[in-house]
Design a protein that fits this description.
This protein has nine helices and ten strands. By secondary structure, the chain is of the alpha/beta class. The radius of gyration is 18 Å and the shape is globular.
């Protein structure tokens, strides 16, 4: 198939510990792809390796037909690939206004039309221009994560890497942010790779998923297969039981 992101034989080691062990993953353009597994399974490490934030020991990563070498990523990569982190409290600078934090990626990439882009990004995440000059401590957790999403969208990327983007939020706010992300993906025809420990979130958001254990992919299946119980691995079944947010429907 045509791929937006293709990972082959990817290994990431920290000293003697293999965080990823010969992982293969393919994600199609416009697809929402989930990575699930228990803590320490390697799912966030895989996302960070694609972003250039984890050292690749072996294997290849291709993004939109370009092979990525080492940990360095050029500006063109970050124009097309952006990441939203788990913690909206830690991902925003506490002493910079929302306006400044949205302007920074535009300045780094020398992108003009900042006023229009900032207003569009705020509108797209459901926040008005009145939020431009607030500081992070003046925002709720959900509002902070919306700002983090706006910052990721402002460069108009084609791929979003989502590392547990709602796990630090209250349950009622989680649904709002997930619905926002799904709307943005449809409107912009984005490719998502989403890490989550919550199978309910993954089946709601993702078309297909890879189940990870001890740094390896142990099962690949569609969300429909997961919901219907068409599962090959006991490990995946145990994840279903452990995921309190999972509802078979």
């Amino acid at each position: 198939m045509t791929t937006s992101v293709s990972v082959r034989n990817l290994t990431v080691s920290f000293d003697e510990f293999k965080a990823l062990d010969a992982v293969d993953v393919d994600v199609a353009p416009g697809e929402s792809f989930g990575l699930v597994g228990e803590s320490g399974s390697g799912k966030s490490t895989l996302l960070r390796a694609v972003a250039g934030l984890a050292p690749v020991t072996e294997g290849t990563i291709r993004v939109e037909d370009r092979q990525l070498l080492g940990a360095r990523r050029d500006k063109a990569f970050y124009r097309s690939v952006q990441m939203v982190f788990q913690d909206p409290y830690g991902s925003l600078h506490p002493r910079q206004t929302v306006d400044r934090q949205l302007l920074e990626p535009l300045a780094i990439h020398r992108v003009g039309d900042g006023e229009r882009r900032i207003l569009k990004a705020l509108d797209e995440v459901g926040l008005g221009s009145g939020f431009r000059f607030r500081y992070p401590h003046q925002l709720s957790g959900g509002q902070r994560q919306r700002i983090a999403i706006a910052r990721a969208l402002i460069l108009e990327p084609s791929i979003l890497l989502l590392d547990e983007p709602t796990s630090a939020l209250d349950a009622s706010v989680q649904a709002e942010v997930l619905n926002l992300l799904e709307q943005v993906r449809r409107d912009r025809k984005l490719t998502f790779i989403m890490v989550s420990h919550d199978l309910g979130v993954v089946t709601h958001m993702c078309d297909r998923l890879a189940v990870m254990q001890n740094g390896r992919v142990v099962e690949r299946l569609s969300s429909a297969d997961l919901v219907a119980g068409r599962i090959g691995e006991d490990y995946t079944r145990n994840l279903m039981v452990a995921s309190k947010g999972f509802r078979r429907g």
